């Protein structure tokens, strides 16, 4: 009987100690999760393939695009699982636009217009270049369509931007383009 009492007391002590340390672990985990802010774009992972935003951020040729994505509050959306196909204009492509227009788009007053233009560069699927066909219409995130053409072995969008490179990302495909796509006027 004395041995049974010792075993029960030991079990109770072990159980109560385990419960109290479990409560401590839970509260510290809760603190950690509530202090993190932002979305998927804030996940630090140097080993896995990068998402479309992280690829753009790492490119010296896409600094204007990255600044526009930040201004339009689209970084979190494009950092999510996707899949996305992003037609990413280079800095040189943005340089072809009127500077006053580009500067105006980068203001809070024109954020909706900037979002519309940037969403016209994204479709919800991961399309490799060899999937794109002459005459194909691509439905873009903003609700408009882009027309694909094939000319002399090159893929051209809306007869204004040529795909110059394709880069796979963890959440889709990036096609680097040499022009900025402008949505049709409403």
Task: Provide an overview of this structure.
There is one protein chain. This protein has 186 residues and is α+β, with helices and mostly antiparallel strands. The protein folds into 2 domains: 1-36; 46-177, FAS1 domain (Roll). Helix content is 40%, strand content 20%. The chain is globular, with a radius of gyration of 25 Å. The model is unreliable at 1-37 (pLDDT under 50).
Q: At the fourth CATH level, what is the homologous superfamily of the largest domain?
A: FAS1 domain
Q: How many domain modules?
A: 2
Largest sheet properties: 7 strands, mixed
| Low-confidence regions | 1-37
Strand element count: 7
Computed CA radius of gyration, to the nearest angstrom = 25 Å
Structural class: alpha+beta
CATH-defined topology of the largest domain: FAS1 domain
Amount of beta strand: 15-25%
Strand order, biggest sheet?
2-1-7-6-5-4-3
Region (Disordered): 22-49
Signal peptide: 1-21
Domain FAS1: 49-181
Protein name: Fasciclin domain-containing protein
Describe the protein's topology.
Elements (H helix, E strand, L loop, with lengths): L1 H34 L16 H6 L5 H9 L3 H5 L4 E6 L1 H5 L3 H7 L5 H9 L2 E2 L13 E3 L5 E7 L2 E4 L3 E9 L2 E6 L9
Parallel strand pairs: 1-7
Antiparallel strand pairs: 1-2, 3-4, 4-5, 5-6, 6-7
Protein name: Fasciclin domain-containing protein
Keywords: Signal
InterPro entries: Adhesion/Biosynth-related (IPR050904), FAS1_dom_sf (IPR036378), FAS1_domain (IPR000782)
């Amino acid at each position: 009987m004395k041995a049974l009492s010792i075993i029960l007391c030991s079990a109770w002590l072990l159980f109560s100690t385990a419960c109290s340390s479990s409560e401590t672990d839970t509260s510290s985990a809760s603190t950690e999760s509530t202090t993190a802010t932002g979305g998927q774009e804030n996940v630090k992972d140097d080993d896995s393939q990068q998402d479309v935003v992280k690829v753009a951020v790492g490119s010296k040729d896409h600094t204007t695009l990255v600044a526009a994505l930040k201004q339009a509050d689209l970084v979190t959306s494009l950092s999510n699982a996707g899949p996305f196909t992003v037609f990413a204009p280079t800095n040189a492509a943005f340089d072809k636009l009127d500077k006053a227009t580009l500067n105006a788009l980068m203001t809070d007053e024109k954020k909706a217009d900037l979002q519309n233009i940037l969403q016209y560069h994204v479709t919800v699927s991961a399309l490799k270049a060899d999937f794109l066909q002459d005459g194909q219409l691509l439905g873009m995130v903003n609700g408009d369509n882009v027309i694909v053409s094939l000319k002399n072995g090159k893929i051209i969008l809306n007869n204004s931007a040529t795909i110059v490179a394709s880069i796979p990302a963890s959440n889709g495909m990036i096609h680097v383009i040499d022009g900025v796509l402008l949505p049709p006027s409403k």
